[in-house]
User: What shape does this take?
Amino acid sequence: MKALVLGGDGFCGWPTSLHLAAEGYAVTIADNLSRRAIADDLGAPSLTPIRSIEDRVTAARNVGDVQFSHLDVTDPVALKALLGTLEPDVIVHFAEQRSAPYSMLGDAQRRYTVANNVNGTNTLFSALVELGQRPHVVHLGTMGVYGYSDDLGELQEGYLDVRVAQTGRDVTIGYPANPGSIYHLTKCLDHTLMQFYAKNWQFQITDLHQGIVWGTDSEITSSDEALINRFDYDGEYGTVLNRLVSQAAVGHPLTVYGTGGQSRAFIHISDTARCVHLATGAPPDPGAQVQVFNQVAEVRNVGALARMIAERTGAEVSYLDNPRKEAAANQLRVSNAGLRSLGFEPRTLEDSLMDEISATVGRYKDRLNRDVIFSKARW
Ligand SMILES: NC(=O)c1ccc[n+]([C@@H]2O[C@H](COP(=O)([O-])OP(=O)(O)OC[C@H]3O[C@@H](n4cnc5c(N)ncnc54)[C@H](O)[C@@H]3O)[C@@H](O)[C@H]2O)c1
Assistant: This one.
């Protein structure tokens, strides 16, 4: 099986590419390295000393068949040339600007996030139409497309069974989109684009609505220094748990927005790689509606997480005015039945895994730039 991993140099894409290679896929990573460039611009390069993509790929050849193409997914000429040569069986699409706070920093970041994410997805499918290729496309979406509310019960996977008030008929509709940032909005737009491509051109598409990813390494990335995964801790790109653990490691108060009453869905980075692998092997029928799986291990309350880390480390918790427009507190229940039916057994937030992140952060804490701990985005 030939897998093309778009965005395979990133936090989720790198361990997933290695996992697929270890499972016997011939993996081609395509990435424009924009994440590395943005991190440098923000003064917040990865806390872990990730290697150049060339060194990474050389080391990855001990794991399996891994190639690299320096390519921008929004460039139709380059993308068509690669697809034409490669003819992949499956494409995993991670290649998007993925920070909600970054997408809300200002005019340039709003426009970049929409142009990069939506244009990339459209360029991919349009190229596949032109080339007559129909690989299974697995796209990374986000739980944030649903909003964070319990009003419609447990969050179903992409669709909702409802009774229409006017006709009394029972129908299944797409789950109402309720994005909370420009970034989340792009994932809703991607989803609508993909529904149209699936219906009109008989694609097989899976959209993985992923929770907040925590942790840093998988078994494979920790097996060799040259394979180490990136770790973001800054206010814009650090995902909440990784951010809090990093703050504790350098004696900074744990920054919690508002009351910390927000409940969010989480998944460990090694589960991301396993779930994507499971999803690649289970395409929907050609032309079927986009298959949606909630790629989530568990739901946790942000304030409770901060208190748990504070207890373990002796750090203080500092409650800041919430810079975001979001409910001060919410309930959340999430179905992950689809991936579970394929064999997903979630790793939950246990101490041993927390110790692993603390150890990584402890090893590299001299590289941490305290000036980037606070998010500059306000909305
Ligand atoms: N990290 C999370 O907590 C999380 C949660 C839910 C969903 N996701 C989704 O998973 C995907 C990967 O996230 P991540 O955390 O690995 O992000 P990341 O920024 O670390 O990785 C994204 C990769 O895509 C590349 N890229 C971006 N635009 C590109 C383009 N136009 N052409 C080629 N390459 C491009 C970047 O250089 C980077 O290597 C994203 O789509 C994100 O929205 C991530």
Remarks:
- The pocket of nicotinamide-adenine-dinucleotide is lined by residues 7, 9-13, 31-35, 72-74, 94-96, 98, 116, 120, 140, 142, 210, 212-213, 239 (CB under 6 Å).
- The first strand starts at residue 2 and ends at 6.
